[in-house]
Amino acid sequence: MSHTITVRPGGSVFRAGPDESIMAAAQRNGFRWPTVCGGKATCRTCVFTVNEGAEHLSEPNKLEAEAMRLLRRPRTPRAGTAAGDIVRLACQARTTGDLTVTKPGVRPNPGATT
Amino acid sequence: MSTVEDVTAGTGQSAGEPREAVCHSVQEWLDLEKRPVPPSLRKKSWVDMGTADLSKDRYLTREWHDLEVEKMWKKVWQMACRADDLPEVGDTFVYEVAHLSIIVTRVTPEGPDGHGIKAYINACPHRGTQLRTVESGNVPEFRCQYHGMCWNLDGNFESAPCEWDMTHVDRSQFGLSPVLADVWQGFVFVNMDVQNAPPLLEYLGGIVEHCDDIARPPLRDRYKAAHVAKVVDCNWKLPQDAFIEAYHLMATHPEIINFTCDSDTEYDIYPGEPHWSRQISPVGQPSAHAGPGIIDQDVIDGFLTQSTMPAKNTFVDTETGELKASPDVTAHEVLADLMRSTFKEKIGFDASDLTDCEVVDGIGYNVFPNLQPWFGVSVPFVFRSRPYGDDPHKCVLDIMLLFPVPDGMEKPPSCPIHWLEPEDSWLEAPEIGEPLCIAMDQDEANWGPMMKGMRTATKPGLTLVNYQESRIRHYNQTLDWYLAQ
Known about the structure:
Chain A has one domain: Ubiquitin-like (UB roll), CATH 3.10.20. Helix content of chain A is 15%, strand content 25%. Chain A has two helices and seven strands, in the order ββαββαβββ. In chain A, strand 1 (3-8) and strand 2 (12-16) form a beta hairpin. Chain B folds into two domains: 17-55 and 206-484, Alpha-Beta Complex (Naphthalene 1,2-dioxygenase Alpha Subunit, Chain A, domain 1); 80-196, 3-layer Sandwich (Rieske Iron-sulfur Protein). Chain B starts with a helix and ends with a helix. Mean pLDDT of chain B is 94; it is low at 1-15. In chain B, helix 4 crosses helix 14 (470-484). The chains are: A alpha+beta (114), B alpha+beta (485). Chain A binds chain B through residues 36-37, 40-44, 62-63, 66, 69-70, and chain B through 133-134, 137-143, 145, 148, 150, 161.
């Protein structure tokens, strides 16, 4: 069972399985996704913002949780908090449902067929 | 020191009547043991270190704190964590003392080639940012959060953004600054004095043999079943002072003196051993201050209801009234047999070779500057206190419990640290046992008033009692030696 990932603002759309990271799914589908460490969760350059579908995302592991704390100061959740406040690492996060996310720079690799 | 004759003389007891509790010195109890006594338990020793007052500045002033940091904390071996806290390659632990921060990390699995653990100064060689800002975690590499420069677990420089801009930097010299790391009995020790520190075992000295002799099962084979930490409003030396003397039991912990003997506690200081000392407190005999007329049943019932002994509070479910004193057997023996049978029944640990002393008494050691591992299997405390930041009026206090691994089981994972809030009662940490929580609250209730009292006092020094507080004098003399270097 795979799910549809829609990436703003470039409009890339691809499918991700439940056992692969968002970034791995993007790469498998021929999209580039920014990264420096290559998926080790240390550089944080793969970070994306969740617009819709946050409830489908996997629980952050410890290293991703560290990155999230560095990128957003933890605060008490309030009613009406915009989903856009949620940032995740694409090299770690997995999804069990459709997502709409914001990540500039995600687009088809040159020469890739999508 | 009392003897059997002292205690029973004049009581007019006859067979069948409740017997007044038997009181002995530690060495007299050892004379009565039915099992072979580890030789180190027999090593009673003391050194006269003088009677001068102890300056109170050492507990109060920023100047003294700064000297301690430069001359002592940066020079000594100190316990950072347990090796079991770092089971996987890439596991990291940040050890902090005063304003100093050290990364401890597992680089390779433990094996015949060594313990596989390294330590580094927690600062980016680029512009100094801490490389790790959370206490524990697992990392594939050390990448700085500021500019993204990266080092591997071995501490070697790996990469940086725009390396064309670093042609003036010798990559081979751009590694993380090393800190010495070694392991003794499962404790990871670090030392920042890379050039001059003696090897860890040389630093530890004779305690190594004592531990091999007395700690059964060895501390390295036990697992950390509980670990509670808290920032406390006092100098780091005040909790330590409380954990290395039993003189305060009567006034501070009045519930436990029916069955824990402050007044017959043995304090051992060894010539030529500046980095450790010991005390042994008999459990299963009352304090001399418990008043006349304490009988064995009082000792047993007091133990069952109010003992801080971790093994008792974890494993023993005997209720008061179920364990009867006998005219033929001392309370000390009754409690030792209770603990032996409990260990066997609950975790399959065979303590049949262990002396009564080893299974009931408090056998506390102190490793300079700030670690108190207790060796007995029933009282397996590990206490540690250290400066919190650069405020000499605050410290971090840790309590760990090291339990034997239940027979036939894999070693359980090392317990993560349960951090209490500064305002919390220790009762928020029931995993160490409620009576110990209460005792910790009682101890902590002394430290604030001590800090306030010392600051107000016009008397410049603290007057120690000579024998029972000798371990405080001992480590302070070692501290003075370091500060004078």
